[in-house]
Design brief:
By secondary structure, the protein is of the alpha+beta class. It contains six helices and seven strands; from the N terminus they run αβαβαβββαββαα.
Length: 185
């Protein structure tokens, strides 16, 4: 099952794409929901599920927040197409923009996009203040992930799910003799 399939779908939301590297490369802090200013061809490509967030980040320019590095492929045959990696304006409240600006300036954080989704027919981006992880922290994340995977496997084996629902092999295949229901007297 894909990671997006494991994530709980919230009411009225349809996931387009997640930034799978975000939690590995960064320690995520405050999250914000923002609308996007898009062109029609971009929305059509997003409806097809075509987008990539791995290299995305946000910048604040003249009191407005722009999402950069998001790759929405160009729509083939579009009369008025778009650039694949153009900066896209995010729609946020002034208080949210100020909180992001303070996090970036004072705490040395960066702002990354963690996921894109449709909410009630509109494209939304979830952005998060993030602090980069060091290599040691990344190794620790991998160890925790492996430990969790092994724990899940052990629980499955303990529950009897280790054979994945297969019936046991016949006795003859296992080398066991057939029990004799009649006893000689």
């Amino acid at each position: 099952m894909s990671r997006a399939g494991k994530e709980k779908e919230r009411e009225g939301e349809k996931l387009i794409v997640r930034n799978k590297r975000a939690t590995f490369d960064y320690t995520l802090d405050d999250r914000f929901e923002a609308g996007l200013v898009l062109l029609g061809s971009e929305v059509k490509m997003l409806r097809e599920g075509a987008a990539e967030l791995t290299d995305s980040w946000c910048s604040i320019e003249h009191g407005e927040v722009f999402l950069k590095g998001v790759n929405i492929p160009v729509m083939p045959g579009a009369a008025f197409g778009h650039e694949a990696k153009r900066p896209r304006k995010l729609l946020l409240h002034e208080a949210e923009i100020e909180a992001i600006r303070k996090g970036v300036e004072r705490e040395g954080m960066t702002v990354i996009a963690t996921r894109l989704y449709f909410k009630n027919g509109r494209v939304k981006a979830e952005i998060a203040l993030a602090k980069g992880k060091k290599t040691v922290d990344k190794r620790e994340s991998l160890k925790e992930k492996d430990a969790a995977r092994e724990a899940r496997a052990a629980i499955e084996r303990a529950r009897g799910g280790g054979d994945r629902g297969r019936s046991p092999a016949p006795r003859a295949a296992r080398g066991e003799a057939r029990p004799n229901p009649r006893r000689p007297e």
